[in-house]
Design a protein that fits this description.
Elements: E1 4-13, E2 41-55, E3 62-65, E4 69-72, E5 78-82, E6 88-96, H1 98-105, E7 115-116, H2 121-138, H3 143-157, H4 167-181, H5 190-195, H6 200-211, H7 215-233, H8 238-244, H9 250-261, H10 265-270, H11 273-278
Antiparallel strand pairs: 1-6, 2-3, 2-4, 2-5, 2-6, 4-7
Helix pairs in contact: 2-3, 3-4, 4-6, 8-9
Amino acid sequence: MGCTLQSAGYTLVGKNAQYPAQTHPKDHLFSHSKGRILQAYQIVYIENGRGRAELGRQEGIQDIPAGSVFVLFPNVWHRYAPELSAGWTEHWVECKGTAFDMAVNSGMLDRRRPIFRTPDRAAIESTFAEIHALATKDAVGNQPVLSMLGLKLLAILAGPRTANQTSTNRLVNTVRMMLLERCADNRPMEEIAEAVNVSYSNLRRTFRAITGMSMKDYQTEMRIHKAKDLLDNTDLSIKGIAAQLGYSSAFHFSNQFRKIVGCPPSDWRARPDAEIENSPSTLG
């Protein structure tokens, strides 16, 4: 799945309070002296207060003021805590899925820049409020909506970070995330335009101007990237992968894969392990 929101929560940490508190999920408790490594992505929003974080063993200590968001990446050591004199309120979600992996591989998220100091606070806070409300009411029953909200957070963070960011940039990045999520979906592109409340003709022109490619071509790139992941990490047959990605036939899938990657899917799967470890991403 493109995005699966596995858990969410928020914690009010008062001044001079122990951190992390014993109410922290047991499987995520960590000693600040030792730090922690997770196997999923976490998005952490600091609503108020302040603290410090080390997000990677080679990274120094960085200040985390109120309003900041930071991303914890899988298999990356980290530790963070509020200042004793200030405390903080933290909101977090934990997600897995190819949407996050593709966002990293395409440069939309950068492990070297995990802290967002000037995100759209209103959008972040409203999305977290929706997540907390749905998770408290019925986390299991609301899982599909919660996962889409996790994707929405990713779309917000994947936008431009400068003060010059515009509504156009935000629109295009939202559409990029929707195309990523729907990479195996053959529904008309007009539905995306309707979902973001703009005309299809305007969206099509704007998307190409910002990304340099059509919406359909971008979705195809995402589909092929997902195909590589399935070829490398599952035992699904070529026919099974074609079906999972929405292709009409294995023949159609193989032809498109060869056209974009330069070899058929079977050759990609059979390449040596060293090439698997070092192969570039589709959008790299």
